[in-house]
Amino acid sequence: QAVPAGSQVRLNLQTGEREAKLPDSENGKSDTREERRRKRLGKVDLDSNSFTSQELKKALAKMKESEKAERKVRKRFPAHEEEVRKKFRPIEQLKEEFEKLNVKIETDYEIMVKLISKFNSSASTLDEKVAALYDLEYYVHQV
């Protein structure tokens, strides 16, 4: 069920029903953060159980416009990106540096691919397959 932005929603443990409290408006003014959320999505009928395709298209168009505006802001402030680049290095560069130290860095994805291939391998013993499943469960849980 769609509810207006800023509403308080709770689960009543005695009845098992979800309840929503509409935001209080003081002097006709609403919270500026909530107002910005409403403007971002545009006019949408929040009382209906579903949205029309036109409403969804308009909301998506507004989201795309705001994304373009954010890109323009990022272009105006490239110093921030330079600051981030100074603090962090690309993973490829880190891998090269660790290879020089004879240390191999693997991403979670690479490790998961190896575990799946070990599990699917007919040469693996039952204990190796069980261990691969336990390790795979750990990595999948992180994702």
UniProtKB/TrEMBL annotation:
Annotated spans, Disordered: 1-44
Gene Ontology MF terms in the entry: adenyl-nucleotide exchange factor activity
Superkingdom, natural source: Eukaryota
Keyword line: Coiled coil, Endoplasmic reticulum, Protein transport, Transport
InterPro entries: Hsp70_NEF-Inhibitors
GO CC annotations, alphabetized: endoplasmic reticulum
Biased composition annotated in UniProt, kind: Basic and acidic residues: 16-35
Coiled-coil region list: 56-111
Gene Ontology terms describing biological process: protein transport
Keyword Ribosomal protein: no
Name used for this protein in its record: SIL1 factor
Organism of origin: Stercorarius parasiticus (Parasitic jaeger)
Lineage of origin: Eukaryota, Metazoa, Chordata, Craniata, Vertebrata
